[in-house]
Amino acid sequence: MFPVQDIENTVKKIKQGDPLAREDFLESCKPFIFKAACKFCRRILDWGRDDELAIALIAFNEAIDRFREGSGVPFLAFARLVMSSRLTDYYRRENRVAAAGVSLQADSSNSLEYAKSWEAYLEEEAFREREEEIKEFEELLSRYGVTFEDLVQCSPRHRDTRQSLLLAAWELAERNHLFKELSAKKKLPLIKLEKVTGLSRKTLERGRKYIIAMAVLMNRREEYLYLSSYLELPTPAKKGVPGKNENTRYDCQD
Amino acid sequence: MKTRAMIVKIKSNSWIVLTPEGEYREVPLREGFRARVGQEIQIPQKKNLPYLRYLMVAASLLVVVLAGQFFPVAPPPAAAYLTIDINPSVELAVTNSAKVVSARGINGDGDRILAEVEVKGVDLRDAVARIVTQAVADRFLCEEEDNIILATLTVEENQEPLVDLGAVYEAIENPVKSGGVNAEIIIEPVEPQMREAAAKTGLSTGRFLLLQKSSKKGVQFNAVELSAVSLGNLEKTKKINIIELMMDDQDASTDGKPAGPGEDKKTKNKQRGIYHEGRMKDHDVVKTPEGKAAEAGAQRYTDSDKKDHPGKNAVKDKEKPKEAPGKPNNKNKGKSSDSNSKKERQELESPGDDSLRQRPWDDS
């Protein structure tokens, strides 16, 4: 399965009360928090020196508690929203303090009304983000000469075919040299992929656009959180791919 | 069954969606539903039959074909055609269930008579009776004249006539009788090809048949005069006997074998017509070479005594030489059994005779 879906399960476990799991989870997600915070602040942050990272980490922890399953928003996207929101609050406060020297403590932050509007805000934000993400994805695909219409055309109708193509896409996304070849040439490395997946050339050729689209999505899954977490992808039968990559997933350099 | 999907693109009249299973699909836009990209919607589950569309096309075609079988839009096709020639010539198209689907007049009198009677959708026997009644009323058939009614019915080869010839005979005879008219009634089964050939010449099948047979006998007809003149007049002017003409050919077609009543049974599948000699010819003398026919005629005379006008057998042999000059006179003499069988038939066919009910064609 996609690692993003594992996270959902982990969050569930943590919420049921497993402090050790929470610690582990926070630790494993630090690269993601770092990356999201850097993106928000538009500069490279440093653990232990910048307040923003601490605030982001607290916000991430808050997100674990606030996260509601089935809201249609994947956890990481939700956490990112909470972090952005908290960082915005932080900057606003800082500015005010700097400007007027008056501390306008978020006194109403705990009131029900505030909580409600905040949730509505998050929901709206999530929607906006998702919309943006899909448009971005479409643009990315166009660089490979693939449109959504093409995907409708060549989407494998049969479940078995779809699964084998998705596995091929997974292999392509996970093998760096293969994916680099793809992004460089914008072409499927058919012969190598044929060897790796054991699928026939014909099958690969037929699902070419589909494999490209899915491989791109899988490769940049932490960027396309909404889309990638929406997919209920089959468990790769061989090699426990997700576990192995657990730690390197949220690398900034990715 | 519905499944969820995320809208990834909104097009002018459809959405492209992505299902959790990783399938991209295009679904029609829903009216009055403003969707945003990224919104999750419910879409109908994918059909499991990839060839469903073709199956549907095939099935609906089948339904149309089958429905066409049970609910015919057009009137049922004519299975047989019946023509009646008195002077008015009409043709009736008949369905399998002996209903008249259409009628047309072949000459002007035929058109007129059809304008006066309603035959469409009526049972064939009724239709025939109505036409003949109307013909009597319009004085196409009158007491003083020699009346001949010639009817033909198309019969497919090796098949029983669609309508019982006897029934048609009765349908013609009854109104003739009740109108107080005497008429010679001929009902001749013909092949459909014959009708087609007749239609080409513009003649009724009956008259066309007459034309053909008479030309075989060496009597020349003018097609134009044939189409307009009443058959009775025709017989008079050309000095021929139509009944004879028809019957002769029939006998000849059985390869000169005796065509007695017994033979009739055997050859009932062969085309056999009904020849009823019902005319009154007081001026004619009953004379046959063997003298047997005279006896038969005499017998018939007494049979039909009760009627005001005693019937007499037509004298065929008297007219024979004129009719067929090229042929030897003694054709009938040579086949005595043949003429005997004719005599017997005449006995059977005499009007008012009870033996009518035992006509050989009723045996079928």
**What is the number of helices of chain B?**
14
Shape of chain A: elongated
Number of domains of chain B: 2
Any idea what the shape of chain B is?
rod-shaped
User: What is the number of E strands of chain B?
Assistant: 10
Q: Output the radius of gyration of chain A.
A: 21 Å
What does the oligomeric state look like here?
heterodimer
Q: Which stretches of chain B of 5+ consecutive residues score pLDDT under 50?
A: 251-271, 279-337
Helical content of chain B stands at 40-55%
H/E series of chain A, N to C? Answer: HHHHHHHHHHHHH
What is the topology, as strand order, of the major beta sheet of chain B? 7-6-5-8-9-10
- CA-CA gap between termini of chain B: 66 Å
Q: Largest sheet of chain A, described in full?
A: none
Alpha carbon gap, first and last residue of chain A:
20 Å
Proportion of beta-strand residues of chain B: 15-25%
Structural class of chain B: alpha+beta
Give a structural overview.
The complex is a heterodimer of chains A (254) and B (364). Chain A is an all-alpha fold and 254 residues long. Chain A has 13 helices and no strands. Chain A is 71% helix and 0% strand. The longest helix of chain A is centred in the middle third of the chain and has 32 residues, at 112-143. Helices cover 41% and strands 17% of the residues of chain B. Chain B is rod-shaped and about 100 Å long. With 364 residues, chain B is an alpha+beta fold. In chain B, helix 5 crosses helix 6. Chain B has 2 domains: 2-70, SH3 type barrels (Roll); 147-161 and 168-363, no CATH class. In chain B, the strands form 2 sheets. Chain B has a 6-stranded mixed β-sheet with strand order 7-6-5-8-9-10, with helices on both faces. A 4-stranded antiparallel β-sheet of chain B has the order 3-2-1-4, with no helix packed on it. At the A-B interface, helix 5, helix 6, helix 7 and helix 12 of A face strand 1 and strand 3 of B.
